[in-house]
Amino acid sequence: MTPEQAPWWTRAVVYQVYPRSFQDSDGDGVGDLGGILQRIDHLADLGVDVVWLSPVYRSPQADNGYDISDYQDVDPAFGTLAQLDELIAALHDRGIRLVMDLVVNHTSDEHPWFVESRSSTDSPTRDWYWWRPPREGMTAGQPGAEPTNWHSHFSGSAWQYDEASGEYYLHLFDRKQPDLNWENPEVRQAVYAMMRWWLDRGVDGFRMDVINMISKAVGPDGSLPDGPPLPGLPYGDGTPHFSNGPRIHEYLQEMHREVFDGRRESLLLVGEMPGVTPEQARLYTDPARAEVDMVFQFEHVQLDLDGDKWHPRPLRMRDLKASLGRWQAGLADVGWNSLYWDNHDQPRAVSRFGDDSPRFRRDSATCLATLLHLHRGTPYVYQGEEIGMANFPFTDLAQFRDVESLNHHVQAVAHGADADEVLAAMRRMSRDNARTPVQWDGSPNAGFTTGTPWIAVNPDHAEWNVAAQLEEPASVLAHHRRLVALRHEDPVVALGDFTMLLPDHDEVYAFTRCLDGDTLLVVCNLSGTAQPLADLLPEAVAAGVVLGNLAEDDPAVLRPWEARVLRPSR
Ligand code: TEU
């Protein structure tokens, strides 16, 4: 791909806004569109090209907006449609595109489509969802009578019994998030019409929530298969029957024809795809197949998990290199990577992969950022990451808000787990770590709200906040600004080939990026111990520093958490 042929998003950096926690403008303690409008200069100063806005649609907020009851309106908690139009215009004025979250694997159970579907077995939208009778020979409502043994992501069985009709509906996530039946062409057309409506309103693309789960492996008789049993749980793993399902590519290609034809070049289409492999991602992101531009894969955020997210274990850097290296190689000639450490579902990267102790927090945050932004792919920065926000010091169940975390606690304790151990895992892994309010300044609510925040502000905000970093050239914020600018200025960063160096080294993560004879060498010390760079990569010592996260010192030694982007002389 030459710089002339490359799509615009190869040079772009995306910033994710989780509106509930970004900025409150009306004092109700919940972030809103008015708040984003107030903080828009922060995004422009950072230099990002795209804002991905997590859901602001009408929603009962069972999963903070990922349960949508009206796709074509804004939830009053976040503001109005007119404010969203204002936001689109304000971003466009600054050359920033807006990508909306598209949550169409499921709706809210309060969406009129589902309310209608549930009203009777003869309802015109009955078949828009997955309704099934109890398992053959079982009494409806009894444990084990669910149509399949699938476990839901957020709450026990993936089937909810509906007494009125004697049938169950499928929900891969919470019971308030019934799955849409994409087999039904009316469902697909309704979704496409809604998407066209948003594009006509001026949005610049979609981040498609769990989009690789929309095709389920349904048999000709309408049956769905059981999954392999899950250890220690009375459920099975349904993923083989709904992850990258039989019609997924057909649906995405149809969506492309129906929605994106004629306007694809200006859009950004990214599919969130748990469980996707590099081989599958090549298919999803091959431009010739017209599906999506890039995917969010999950491999690198699962390397420190033992079985599931509630059983964290230490990450081996070698595993991280092997994984990211495989993704770089897998999409080198076809397709494209998205790059992220943080989002609204992951604990904070500086606490998880870095070192958030006072000594190394700034250095590890900037080191991780350098590493991420210098890979080949489109980097995604999650709100607060640009100032090194860290996990919250949770001590009590009452501090949590997230449906996944709270449901997990109930389930785990009901199945005999020790409540303190469950809480300890939640403290490390809960999504609420990512959802505490953005720390704008050192005032009591960090400048987020004049009211009572919906979730507590991290007590470290007195020291770690945007205001404190704004004019500080050595800050995490200033470093992010430099990384964004570097991608814009240097075509090697955007398009250079990637070659991993020192694959077996457990502390130093090093690689080159090459384009038309021009090379960048990236060396990052992912540890708290100095590393002998002169021995490991002698060519690095004499190379010119393009960008580093520490003031220049002995070029032969890589200090703890030091990161350097180098340009060896040709
Ligand atoms: O997340 C999809 C997903 O796979 C999550 O279950 C993820 O694995 C989990 O949050 C990790 O703890 C998407 C959204 O990003 C998430 O916020 C939603 O809750 C979910 O879909 C349902 O819409």
TrEMBL record:
<dbReference type="InterPro" id="IPR045857">
    <property type="entry name" value="O16G_dom_2"/>
</dbReference>
<comment type="similarity">
    <text>Belongs to the glycosyl hydrolase 13 family.</text>
</comment>
<dbReference type="InterPro" id="IPR013780">
    <property type="entry name" value="Glyco_hydro_b"/>
</dbReference>
<keyword id="KW-0378">Hydrolase</keyword>
<keyword id="KW-0326">Glycosidase</keyword>
<dbReference type="GO" id="GO:0009313">
    <property type="term" value="P:oligosaccharide catabolic process"/>
</dbReference>
<feature type="domain" description="Glycosyl hydrolase family 13 catalytic">
    <location>
        <begin position="16"/>
        <end position="435"/>
    </location>
</feature>
<protein>
    <submittedName>
        <fullName>Oligo-1,6-glucosidase</fullName>
    </submittedName>
</protein>
<dbReference type="GO" id="GO:0004556">
    <property type="term" value="F:alpha-amylase activity"/>
</dbReference>
<dbReference type="InterPro" id="IPR006047">
    <property type="entry name" value="GH13_cat_dom"/>
</dbReference>
<dbReference type="InterPro" id="IPR017853">
    <property type="entry name" value="GH"/>
</dbReference>
<dbReference type="Pfam" id="PF00128">
    <property type="entry name" value="Alpha-amylase"/>
</dbReference>
